[in-house]
Design a protein that fits this description.
This protein has 162 residues and is mainly alpha-helical. It is 68% helix and 11% strand. It is built from 7 helices and 3 strands; from the N terminus they run ααβααββααα. It has a 3-stranded antiparallel sheet with strand order 1-3-2. Helix 3 packs across helix 4. The protein is globular, with a radius of gyration of 19 Å.
Length: 162
């Protein structure tokens, strides 16, 4: 571990900036969810489906870390709100395949449009190498989050102080 004061300070600044970005991202997600009339978990499900196209209820449960019962309730809410379809998989009738209704995609994208435009302008001045560094950084953070989620699942509830 480096003891260079400038590096130690820079790493501390990076950690603080990451926490603040995470906090603001969460507040932003809650505001988007409220605007769309869904919960944040519902929004995460919709974002996941927007990325992958369609998924089984089991895949959604795994991705969102929700129980299958909670996913069933969530999918019922999203169907009633007209955001998704849930059809039995013709190859395996036990599975349900969920997809965003194509006519609702624009409704889901609209609250993000301004942010997406600003994010695009933000990286306009970055060199390709800088963007690639950011992509690598995000991939490494994602791997860390997934590993920590696995650890939390494997070790049950948090230990409470005596």
């Amino acid at each position: 571990m480096s003891h260079d004061p400038a590096r130690v300070s820079a790493v501390a600044d990076l950690m603080r900036a990451g926490r603040e970005t995470s906090r603001l991202s969460m507040v932003f997600r809650y505001a988007i969810a409220e605007r769309l009339g869904v919960t944040v978990s519902d929004l995460e499900c919709l974002d996941y489906l927007a990325d992958v196209g369609s998924a089984t209820a089991g895949q959604i449960a795994e991705r969102t870390s929700l129980t299958t019962g909670a996913v069933t309730s969530m999918l019922r809410r999203l169907q009633q709100a007209g955001y998704v379809t849930a059809e039995r998989d013709p190859a395996d009738r036990r599975r349900v395949v969920v997809a965003i209704r194509p006519e609702r995609i624009a409704d889901l994208e609209r609250p993000y449009e301004r942010f997406a435009e600003r994010a695009e302008r933000l990286v306009e001045g970055y060199r390709a190498e800088e963007v690639q560094l950011l992509v690598r950084h995000h991939h490494r953070l994602q791997a860390m989050y997934l590993a920590e989620l696995d650890h939390l699942r494997d070790h049950g509830t948090a230990q409470r102080p005596a």
